[in-house]
From TrEMBL:
Residues 75-419 form the Amidohydrolase-related domain. The keyword Signal applies. GO terms for molecular function: hydrolase activity, acting on carbon-nitrogen (but not peptide) bonds. The keyword Signal applies. It comes from Terriglobus roseus. It holds the Pfam family Amidohydro_1. InterPro entries: Amidohydro-rel (IPR006680), Metal-dep_hydrolase_composite (IPR011059), Metal_Hydrolase (IPR032466), Metallo-dep_Hydrolase (IPR051781), OTAase-like (IPR057744). PANTHER family: ALPHA-D-RIBOSE 1-METHYLPHOSPHONATE 5-TRIPHOSPHATE DIPHOSPHATASE. This is Imidazolonepropionase. Keywords: Signal. Gene3D superfamilies: Metal-dependent hydrolases (3.20.20.140), Urease, subunit C, domain 1 (2.30.40.10). CDD domains: Met_dep_hydrolase_A. Residues 1-18 form the signal peptide.
Length: 422
């Protein structure tokens, strides 16, 4: 069969040429988002050739034979980025998932989660730890890249790294059950370096570490014990850097966040109650804060008692006030929702909350798309509609600069030049 088709191609160069020419598509809509300028333009057009954007603006070339997709009263914009996801977590059983579900079962559920996120317009994600499923996220990422399953382009970390008795170590449970940690346990610097090397060997793109936890807000006083020393985090950052990787930390409060920022991590996730010195350093070094408000709201709305709801609401209000201080201090932000414990595909809510708590819609879009692309190490490939960038394009009703809620109703999704949702 192979020989026959090669022979045909040799005999018929025109057919070969047609085969090699990439599929060309023109997207047309009422508006297009210019993220860098923070405004929408009218109308909007994107010319896609194969997997890449060829032109984007108010008018593009319409090559002969190009497929034209008319998207009506919508805004064309880059695919959304979620810089803090958990494909391996799902609603209802976060704490016991590692006990109740096998890694193969969790991997299939993660594949379904990836599809939901993509259909909601998230074409790129940074998955912040499988929480007990080891490096199964590498398999999901690779299956997406091979086109076997639909999903966003992924940066994955394998398990997060955590200390004995730390944030994810199933502390306080019946010791006779010998529950495994939901993270990779590493106490000494040597253990941390070994774990980073092992995860890299298995295909991790970056390192996720739990630096603080668990949080406690009592009578207006917020605390969260640190887990690794500044020296340990510095060693971790250096080891990651050695192989072109980076470290992201789960961190709130001091001194943990200060240690992480001094060590030069790529992002501080959750980022609640930072000192002014920490905020200053984050601005100077370009270290992103990823607030993850959506998860807090979901937990506040799904508690076991009115007292718990009250406590959660207080935490939300505290973090919202801290977020305003961070904006005023010039801290750079990326957008991450912590989706998993709340339903996959609903995480655009994070951007509504960032606007609700004081950031302009244009700044939220800049944080999500331009900063998100930097944080995911795809600065020159995603997050903007520019020639040569991957054709990850979505269309939303209305104008997201005027009403950020447009992002919660994504109508059209293209990833890598392929129409996923129409
Ligand atoms: Zn998380």
């Amino acid at each position: 069969m192979k020989i026959a088709s090669v022979t045909f191609a040799l005999l018929c160069p025109a057919a070969l040429l047609a085969q090699q020419q990439p599929h060309t598509v023109v997207l047309h809509a009422a508006r297009i988002l210019d993220v860098a300028a923070g405004k929408t333009l009218t109308p909007g057009e994107v010319l896609v050739e194969g997997t890449r954007i060829k032109e984007a603006g108010t008018h593009v070339t319409h090559p002969a034979g190009a497929e034209v997709i008319e998207l009506g009263d919508t805004t064309l914009m880059p695919g959304l980025i979620d810089a803090h996801t958990h494909l391996f977590l799902h609603v209802g059983n976060e704490a016991n998932q590692t006990v109740d579900e096998s890694v193969p079962e969790r991997t299939l559920i993660a594949a379904d989660a990836a599809r939901h996120d993509l259909l909601a317009g998230f074409t790129a994600e940074r998955d912040m730890g499988t929480e007990g499923a080891g490096c199964a996220d590498v398999a999901v990422r690779n299956a997406i890249n091979r086109g076997l399953i639909p999903g966003p382009r992924m940066r994955v970390s394998c398990n997060a790294i955590d200390i004995t008795g730390g944030h994810e170590d199933n502390s306080g449970k019946n010791p006779e059950q010998h529950l495994l940690s939901n993270a990779d346990r590493a106490d000494s610097t040597d253990e941390v370096l070994h774990t980073i090397r092992e995860q890299r060997k298995q295909g991790a793109d970056f390192v996720k570490m739990y630096e603080t936890g668990r949080d406690n807000l009592h009578d207006g006083v917020f605390t969260s014990p640190y887990q690794y020393t500044q020296e340990q985090l510095t060693a971790a950052v250096a080891e990651a850097k050695r192989t072109g990787s980076r470290v992201a930390v789960h961190a709130t409060a001091e001194p943990g966040t200060g240690y992480a920022v001094a060590a030069g991590v790529a992002s501080v996730d959750h980022a609640d109650f930072l000192s002014s010195e920490t905020m200053k350093q984050m601005k100077e070094k370009g270290i992103f804060a990823v607030p993850t408000f959506a998860i807090s709201e979901y937990f506040a709305e799904h508690t076991e008692s009115p007292t718990a709801t009250q406590r959660r609401r207080e935490s939300e209000a505290f973090h919202a006030a801290e977020f305003k201080k961070q904006i005023a201090a010039g801290v750079p932000f990326a957008v991450g929702s912590d989706v998993g414990p709340f339903p996959h595909g609903t995480q655009a809510r994070e951007m509504e909350l960032m606007v609700k708590y004081g950031m302009s819609a244009a700044d939220v879009l800049h944080a999500d798309l331009i900063n998100g692309a930097k944080l995911l190490d795809w600065e020159n490939s995603i997050g903007q509609l520019k020639p040569g960038f991957f054709a990850d394009v979505i269309a939303v009703p209305g104008d997201p600069i005027k009403d950020i809620s447009a992002l919660t109703h994504v109508q059209f999704v293209m990833k890598n030049g392929e129409v996923i949702k129409r």
